[in-house]
Structures are given as structure tokens and as C-alpha cells.
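Revision sheet: C-alpha cells.
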Amino acid sequence: MTTTTVPTQDLEPRTTTGGTDGTRPPAGGRRDRHVSPKKVAGYAILIIFAIIYLYPFLIQIATSFKSDPESVAHPLSLIPNPFDLGA
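Predicted:
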């Protein structure tokens, strides 16, 4: 029976929290993030479209709390004056 020995290598301990140069990330695990103007513009457009699509539903909810004459006089106001639950 023959035995062979396998040479072992000394491995450096590796850390998962540090960078390659031995620095640590900022406290709390936050990294400096670059926000691109393209991404900001995309989110702004999404928010604008969300408001456009939600506005008619908000008008319907607000109109349900208005009296009949007020709903005809001010159909696009979101705040009923006076607030009325009798409608």
C-alpha cells in the first residue's frame, strides 16, 4: 500500500465585510450610491402617470361626500365644502 502526501497551501483568511483593499464599508452597511438622472427622470414620469390615473378615483370618492348642488357646481374639487354624509 502506497501513501502519497498532498502539499497544503496556506490560505489567507477572507472576510465578507471588507473590500479588496482591507477597508470596511461605512457603518450600517450603507454604500455610497450614485443616483443617475435617467433613473430620477424615470421615477418622476411614473409618479406623474400614477397621479393622472388615480385622480379620477379620488374625484369619485370626494363627490360621494358632496351634496348634489355642490357636485354640479364644483365637480373637480377634491375637498367637499361642507362635508356631507347624506349624499
